[in-house]
Amino acid sequence: MSYMLTHLRSGWAVDQAILSENDKVVIIRFGHDWDPICMQMDETLYKASHLLSNYAVTYVVDISEVPDFNKMYEIYDPCTVMFFFRNKHIMVDLGTGNNNKITWAIRDKQEWIDLIETVFRGARKGNGLVIAPKDYSTKYKY
Asked: Which of 17, 21, 60, 67 is most buried (CB neighbours < 10 A)?
């Protein structure tokens, strides 16, 4: 599904995407189009994109094609999703310990929409750290 999402092909394009949006959350998925985890995430991103179009915009960045941000944002996972609002990185407390990014595929469209709504409302209030509506820690899986 990544072919349906807007690809950013250079570091400059990524910077401009983050800088140009003043009223919407910028969602950037860093990874590879051929990666199975990214494919699952891209499907969720695409399914929810039209419902989130009023307050979020989604972009895809291939980390091999645009390696500029790999070190800066510590992108070592095959699929990484990050959020920005008004040129500011928005951190999300998911209960995993890593508040900077999402490194797994969220397959449920409504779960993704709820998360983005929470990020948007928190970011609009000026919060740099937003608490996710669902706890993704592993303590409930055992």
From this structure: 60
